[in-house]
Design goal:
- This protein has 709 residues and is an alpha/beta fold.
- It folds into 3 domains: 18-310, Alpha-Beta Barrel (TIM Barrel), CATH 3.20.20; 337-588, Glycoside hydrolase family 3 C-terminal domain (Rossmann fold); 599-708, Sandwich (Immunoglobulin-like), CATH 2.60.40.
- 27% of the residues lie in helices and 19% in strands.
- The chain contains 19 helices and 30 strands.
- The chain binds beta-D-glucopyranose.
- Beta-D-glucopyranose (BGC) is lined by residues 51-52, 113, 160, 239-240, 370, 416.
- Residues 629-699 form the Fibronectin type III-like domain.
Length: 709
């Protein structure tokens, strides 16, 4: 993994001393939409950035968001952040990063703008699909592995958006009131470990305000916490348009000013900063520090001098990378419910099959905002299922509901700093006709006992940068269609392709529910393998699926999605921390995920060895198929004298077991990590005197209990 060394810093200092003020200024603001200026006389190249978390974005012109429309920027499309988190498998998060890093290098990039590490505070956040989880530990573990994978290729990862960019509404201005405890325990930990444990070389400052200060000018976030407390000596880049005030950002630890507009010379760290330094209003030493951060990262990435010859070359759109995207997708799909063992479907016992739903015949890589990907291919569910089952099953497809095809406007980013309006179109009439057709077919298939698969959910008209969803309901009248299908056949297999939870009012009638996320270029194939049992699902939810939006703490206790100001009044009680503590029933709990086999847990032993806590237990595969379990460790802190959540995730592992196999499993973690909490009384991290420990398959399905103290 690439890290910044003392030698990199020395080199950066030496070069900075040789530069004119104009040259230095050129290195700390965009000279184009995605790169800074070079200093050819000193052999310093441009620093090239590109989006984003699910693959390397297509080429735009330097001074225009319009795409270049060539074929050499077609790339592999990786499963979304939520899907990667859903594997609960750091080895796969690492592979995600490794593929992305190789592709970024292959495309000539220096910094890839991901992973997106913001916490899923509300199901409505438009960028939830990019984000990993409602839980800081899961986000940090998967995020760290991803970053380490990226940086193997002499490319910098850029965890974003620092910090608390958990809503899109008014994202440039919204002021978020967040307690120090919630920042420390929920919103910052994944960024801390990204820079301290994974060694991220860069980080992106968020658009929003936290406690009254823009993130890109916050002395508390940038200087106090990131630079001083965490010792970050890499490069901080603004989100595109995140720097608004030259002086306020110049004096804090943010280095590079990028933006979405074409007036590059007038970016805040361009001419305005140059003039302020010349006028003696801002010290040149502040500019030097920023340039040194950029150069140190460049040197660590082997971008300077002869080191260039030894820099990794990367590769993209390869078959090897494609195969990896399939491996990741296979472990991210979550089997939410399989009450009648309808799944896996038996290929040899089926002669015809009905597939209903617009998301069956749809690809998603071409939307979402800056995470958009020009994929070399993307297998839709319909494509995947047809391709997998072959010619002996007669597959009928019915659209079922009307969802107009997303066509992300090529130059949307030009206007992305403006708040946007609700886009949902009312196509009720057409929807009714499509529904009637699908239900008629369903009646026919149900009468002969042939299976029906529904594939619906959201798309990037809803899971979308710069917008939050207005509600948690399924769009396009899908509820009515699903209701009708379930009346005809309660064993209809319901598959959802989406980045955020939806309300499921019909769920008491449904026996079989599968959650597929936006799952990368091989998504449809991984889904087919899962539905037909070639893959035993092992994805687990990285977030709670609440029954209804009104149950969600961000939307009921706190405020969410407002312009101007939102209050994180739910404090640390985000997601399951709230539902478990307050006994609020949920649709599917955090960590939940079924498979085609079952696991037994037993014989928990808890030992303290030096500074470590070690849990050993037995895990047995009690079914007839090989499968992967995800044992999760939760703590209940005791004796803190402060209010604490009932359960907090502190560790997990993923274990593959053959049918009937029994194995000892170990989860080990530093004692301090198990007992740590942010004490509001002390205004600092403290250790609880004792804790109960729970191991289970989800936060709602705990199987073993122990204690430390
Ligand atoms: C997004 C960032 C992205 C940047 C560059 C902004 O709109 O918030 O996540 O990396 O644009 O495209």
């Amino acid at each position: 993994m690439t890290m910044i060394s003392e030698a990199n810093k020395r080199k950066a200092r030496e070069l900075t001393q040789q530069m004119t003020l104009e040259e230095k200024i050129g290195m700390i603001h965009g000279a184009a939409l995605f790169h800074t200026a070079a200093v050819p006389r000193l052999g310093i190249p441009e620093m090239v950035f590109d989006d984003g978390p699910m693959g390397v974005r297509a080429d735009t012109y330097d001074d225009n968001w319009a795409p270049r429309h060539n074929t050499r920027d077609e790339v592999c499309y990786l499963p979304s952040g939520s899907a990667v988190a859903s594997t609960w498998n750091p080895a796969l998060a690492f592979e995600t990063g490794r593929v992305l890093g190789e592709e970024a290098r292959g495309r000539g990039k220096d910094v890839i703008l991901g992973p997106s590490l913001n916490i899923k505070r509300s199901p409505l956040c438009g960028r939830n699909f990019e984000y990993m989880s409602e839980d800081p530990v899961l986000t940090a573990v998967q995020g760290d592995a991803y970053i380490e994978g990226v940086q193997l290729s002499d490319v910098a990862a850029c965890p974003k958006h620092y910090a608390a960019n958990s809503q899109e509404t008014d994202r440039l201005e919204v002021d978020e009131t967040i307690s120090e405890r919630a920042l420390r325990e929920i919103y910052l930990p994944a960024f801390r470990s990204a820079v301290q444990d994974a060694g991220a070389l860069t980080i992106m400052g968020a658009y929003n305000k936290v406690n009254g200060r823009q993130c890109c000018e916050s002395p508390m976030l940038l200087d106090g916490i990131l630079r001083r407390e965490w010792g970050f000596d890499g490069l901080v880049v603004s989100d595109w348009g995140g720097i608004k005030d030259t002086a306020k950002s110049a004096v804090v630890g943010i280095d590079v000013d990028m933006n979405v507009t074409y007036d590059f010379d007038d970016y805040r760290f361009g001419r305005p900063l140059l003039e302020a330094v010349k006028a003696g209003e801002i010290a040149e030493s502040l500019v030097d520090e920023k340039v040194e951060h950029v150069l140190a990262v460049m040197d660590a990435l082997k971008m300077l001098d002869d080191a260039r010859k030894g820099r990794k070359a990367g590769s993209y759109a390869t078959i090897g990378h494609t195969a990896k995207t399939l491996d990741i997708a296979r472990e991210s799909i979550v089997l939410l419910r399989n009450d009648h063992d309808v799944l896996p479907l038996d290929r040899s016992a089926i002669s015809r099959l009905l597939i209903v739903g617009a998301n069956a015949d749809r690809i998603h890589s071409l939307g979402g905002g800056s995470a958009v990907i020009k994929a070399i291919h993307e297998i839709s569910p319909l494509n995947g299922i047809n391709g997998f089952v072959g010619g002996n099953i007669d597959i009928t497809y019915a659209e079922g509901y009307y969802a107009p095809q997303v066509n992300q406007n090529d130059t949307w980013q030009e206007d992305s700093l403006e708040n946007a309006a609700d886009k949902s179109a009312d196509e009720a009439e057409r929807a009714r006709r499509l529904r009637d057709e699908a239900l008629a077919l369903a009646r026919d298939f149900a009468a002969s006992g042939d299976p029906i698969i529904f594939v619906g959910g959201l798309n990037h008209d809803h899971d979308l940068e710069a917008y939050d969803r207005k509600g948690m309901g399924l769009p396009y009248d899908q509820d009515a269609l699903i209701d009708g299908l379930l009346d005809i056949d309660p064993d209809t297999v319901l598959v959802f392709v989406a980045g955020s939870p939806v309300e499921m009012p019909w769920q008491p009638k449904a026996s079989t529910i599968v959650w597929n996320w936006y799952n990368g270029m091989e998504s449809g194939f991984a889904l087919a393998e899962t539905l037909f049992g070639a893959v035993n699902p092992s994805g687990h939810l990285p977030e709670t699926f609440p029954v209804r939006l009104a149950d969600c703490p961000a939307n009921s206790i706190g405020t969410f999605g407002l312009e101007g100001h939102v209050d994180y009044a739910e404090d640390i009680y985000v997601g399951y921390r709230y539902y478990q503590t307050k006994d609020v029933p949920v649709l599917f709990p955090f960590g939940h995920g079924l498979g085609y086999t079952t696991f037994d847990y037993g014989d928990l032993q808890v030992r303290a060895i030096d500074d470590m806590i070690r849990l050993d237990f037995h895990l047995t595969n009690t079914g007839e198929r090989a499968g992967k379990a995800v044992p999760q460790l939760y703590v209940t802190l005791e004796g803190t004298g402060e209010d604490r959540p009932a359960l907090e995730l502190r560790g997990f592992t993923k274990v593959a077991l053959e049918p009937g196999e029994r194995r000892q499993v170990t989860i080990e973690l530093p004692r301090d990590e198990a007992l740590r909490y942010w004490s509001t009384k002390a205004g600092a991290f403290a250790l609880a005197p004792a804790a109960r420990l729970h191991v289970g398959e989800s936060v709602g399905d705990l199987r073993l209990e122990g204690r430390i103290g």
